[in-house]
User: Fold this.
Amino acid sequence: MPVVASSLNPAASRAHTGGHGSHPREPVDSEYLWTLNFGPQHPATHTTLRLVLTLDGERIVKAEPDIGYLHSGFEKLGEDLDFNQYVTIVDRMNYISPLANEIAWHHTVEKLLDIKITPRCTYLRTILAELMRLHDHLLCIGAVALDLGAFTAFLYFFQQRELIYDIVEYASGQRFHTSYTRVGGVMFDVNTAWADKVRNFSKGFPKIHSEVDRLLTRNRIFVDRVKGVGVLSREDAINMGCSGPIARASGVVRDLRKDEPYLAYADLDFKVAASKGGDCYARYLVRMQEMLESIKIIDQAIENIPDGPVNVDLEGKSVLPAKPAVYRSIEGLIHHFEMVMPNRGFKVPVEEIYASTESPNGELGFYIVADGEPRAYRARCRPPSFIHFATFQHIMPGYMLSDVPAVLGSLNIIAAELDR
Amino acid sequence: MAIATPAGAAGSSSPFVNPQKGLPDNVFLTTLNAASSWARKNSLWPMPFATACCGIELMATASSRHDLARFGAEVMRFSPRQCDLMIVAGRVAMKMMPVLQRIWLQMPEPKWCISMGACACTGGVFDTYAVVQGVDRFIPVDLYVPGCPPRPEQLIAGIMQIQELVQRTGTMQGTEFQYRNRPTGPAPFDADEIIRIREGQLQLTPLELPVSLKQAQTPTLTQATP
Amino acid sequence: MDFAALNEHLGGVLKSEAFRDNNRVIVPANRLEELMSHLKHVGGFDFLSDVTCVDYLEYPGATDRFGVVYVLVNTATRERLIVKTFVNDPAPKLPSMYSLWKTADWTEREVYDLFGIHFTGHPNLQRILCPPEFESHALRKDYPLKGRGERHNFPVITRAES
Ligand code: SF4
Assistant:
């Protein structure tokens, strides 16, 4: 019986000891296979994913993701809410780096409306975007480590996340779903105390980073669980549409911050982290390196943040006026009213646009169709998690059941972004 | 925060009565019910039904800074059979609701349920076709923690209120749930909603009550019972 | 990508549009497959970023019902191109791009689920986000935002029953 023989043969069953590359699926007698239902409520899936695994012993023959357990109609809501209101919804899309979504959304809207944001806002958004990259990678690495049995890294990194929560809360008033950006600016300006907070954070962060680096990077147990697991080749990564850290870990050096510079990235000096391994370990290393680069960007941006208004000029009447102006002056009140009433406010072209930013997880794009109303006719989001999770069924065959948490964690699947 | 308490449940804050004369100082007399509830309330095992963003706040509550372990409720168990407190954190979509009901049915008595966040309580900002407008329409809920997401402090306050509830209602005789045998939430759908749905359809397609609605009027338990 | 050469290759059926930095090519549905494989093999567009769909039911001045949008990237030159095609009721149908780019697998399933467009040649065209027993296509403009009551169609569990 070829099946039993192959599953007992260590070289065939543990594919990642037998070199990287493809894992040819041998024809297996289906009587020996059994099916394992993984999720939707399972600790290693973090949120709501379901996998239907077909196993030969402990070796995975077929992995079939079943998603949609958190489908909540984001895109339908985008057709109902106006450009400013919808920011509260995109927040909730990738909920471990909410501000990155807001920046991506308003980046697209501003492109559609042809609004040029002020230099101060550009830098402010750059800092926030990089803080969110840290936010995302911290949780991602912490959670991978947690799933593979290293609890300490999770707690160390979560402490850093709390510091970022504090920074964000200081600026916007909410620690989680900030809804901070507006068309043509942000909700409030920041002050010097906030800048000091950011400086403090970026000073303290490298120490924690190197501590976790020492805990994990050469830790035998951790490395054995992730090295050579979940290999994604360069061609596959391109063909399957991978972007962000996952593509870069497979050797596709594609970073929208460099390729199509937006915000202030063109003025700042940073490197793109990449690796050729394509396995979970490479993804881990890329993320770790990207965090240091983000700190570098934040350091430069916080020192060079220009003075001046943070919103585009109010004569243009594209942004909501400041609250004190609304309460104390009749012009402010009228302006606010005009903006909030439907059919007033922006001049929206009858056009369609696609624009994308490099979110922590990859290329986060929005395709907006506008019909002249102050709300989107169609607000499509190009969610990186969705595209990345589709690779799972191609990566997984050949590996062991215990590799599932490592691969899931390193792909960093966020259910709300996956299902929308 | 509102607790759905049975009317007239006897309240006693401390389980212990004064020691009787003649007994040594380290002996306390109490009722079995009070003592067991006291033990139970300080060793709650939550089942984190974390679906969305609120789940991340739940993680924050359990990790470094906020440290849920101080309240004896840090043993997150993902197997429903070991848990007695379900925390529904996040929105529950159409496809997820049967899973939630099934997990709730698998938990052993006595059990409590916290609905954490605006989405789990009412649907929150997601008043769309796919999101259940409040889990309390379909499973019993003891405590609602509002917020989007609730701050960790708020969740901790909620867990402390659940502890009070456990202490107050007692768990030994199984009397604690006898008052609550009716659904605690609003009706699955109200009359206004049907009218709204119909009107929404009127402009678009000929008026006809969808099949799904007809079925919903006579709820059956056959699908959900394991 | 040189539009004139591309158009010549396809026999002049293409239309081009530009808005801000987006370049769009509009192609009739029956020539889509030919164009896409030309773009991939000759034009070097090896990265399919996204597949999506727009329901133009209430759009001012629209003549076709559905527009399907493909966002392509050339990873060597960083060039972006958006390909658009139109399909109509009843039974909207398009060839699947799965054989060219594997990205199309789930993105096309999503378009099928939410808009009801069939992709012929797709290996596993099933609903992906909505439950399999769902009957409508949720992102079509004639489906109400709050649904038709599907979200309330569950049994109620009370304390006494659990
Ligand atoms: S209540 Fe807010 S934070 Fe919680 S799941 Fe809903 S949207 Fe997310």
In short: Chain C has a mean pLDDT of 84. The longest strand of chain C covers residues 47-55. Chain C touches chain A at residues 19-22, 24, 46-50, 52, 54-55, 58-61, 69, 71, 75, 78, 80, 82, 101-103, 105-107, 110, 114, 127-131, 138-139, 145 (CB under 8 Å).
